[in-house]
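Reviewer has doubts. Consider these tokens.
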Amino acid sequence: MASRGGPRATGTDGSDFQHRERVASHYQMSVALKSEIKKLIYTHVGIWLLLLAQMCVGHLKLLPHDQVAMPYQWEYPYLLSILPSVLGLLSFPRNNISYLVLSMISTGLFSVAPLIYGAMEMFPMAQQLYRHGKAYRFIFGFSAVSVMYLVVVVAAQVHGWQLYYSKKLLDSWFTSTQEKKKK
């Protein structure tokens, strides 16, 4: 047992720790990647809640139309992007590979695809704004196109990093299952 101020075992200088067991690197990586992915999922949930609030305010007409614009068409399918995040969170407790794979595939379908469509849908309005300085939709005094392009850029980065870390986590889990099968 270690003690800070007590006597040290005779015959040791404290450098005999090399023989002790260590946590395997793929387990350490798994914990670190799960933490990063959780941060990204919670960031995605924040973006999702902001879009949901904007859609509710727009449809229920809680604020005047000149303060909060009606949602763009891409925002409706993007609401389904919460499903991959839930699947990702469900895959963590038992290192469920199939849930993580489903999460990655559905992230592309329900998250990235609507963002690409949204960028294409809003492009003519963004072009008009920057060429002629005319905007017809606003969100609290800001051009809705500018605000939503900012949302698209941030969400694309969040989902890109989420897919990258998920792939690394998947590789880590495959490494650990292959080592268990060898034993």
Remarks:
- The helical segments are 25-60, 75-78, 82-91, 97-132, 144-182.
- The two ends are 32 Å apart (CA to CA).
- DSSP finds five helices and two strands in the chain.
- The longest strand covers residues 138-139.
